[in-house]
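#struct-help
A.M.: can someone run this one for me? Single chain, 149 residues.
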Amino acid sequence: MNAEISARLDAALATAVAQQGRADSKAATLLTLDSILVAGFSAMAGQMPTAAWPVAAAAVAALIVSATLAILVIRPNLGGTDRGSFIHWSLIDTDEVLVESLREDHRPAHLRVMARITLKKMQLVRRSGLASLLALGLLAVAALVTVLV
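D.P.: on it. Structure tokens below:
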């Protein structure tokens, strides 16, 4: 493999790893937002009229979905045994196999694994964010019903 391709592989791997960190940070932010929305719901729950409860229940369901999706982003996936994953390396049990495996360049396989993980994380972050937005809107409607009734 020539130096230019090798440098591009290294850059692509670094980008994939950085994007995973961004996804984890976004998931943490969404979990914080969900916690704030739960606190807001708790504060107004005692004053909420019966007419607002169905909307509030839908908001709580959306918050549960959002939090679950955000947790799935930060939860480690330990199921893969692809040659490019750390799980593969943890399963190697002899020095001889380890040395043989290190002779090959696993960066292309590692990049594929990291890109798939990154894509999955970003998809979950997006869905979690949409669920949080839905919950926020529903809580605003419930608050408006509470004020008007």
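A.M.: thanks! The chain has a mean pLDDT of 89.
D.P.: also worth noting: The chain has one domain: 3-148.
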